């Protein structure tokens, strides 16, 4: 199953690449912004899938999505269903 993840831009590397922070954790990914109609700015929330930013997200929508993903991961962790458990 594939999952696109909301991520916040924390650094612009150049016009087509940026570093994004996934969720509230320390994980940083480098993603291409070449599919977006306009370059992102630091603080923008993006939907990232397979290394590509697919679209910008409204900040409220992004926070709601991240909260739902966190809740889902917490539930899986409690039942021992996370990968590697």
From TrEMBL:
GO terms for biological process: protein maturation. Pfam families: HupF_HypC (PF01455). It comes from the Bacteria. InterPro entries: Hydgase_assmbl_chp_CS, Hydrogenase_HupF/HypC. GO terms for molecular function: carbon dioxide binding; iron ion binding. Belongs to the HupF/HypC family. This is HypC/HybG/HupF family hydrogenase formation chaperone. It comes from Candidatus Desulfovibrio intestinipullorum.
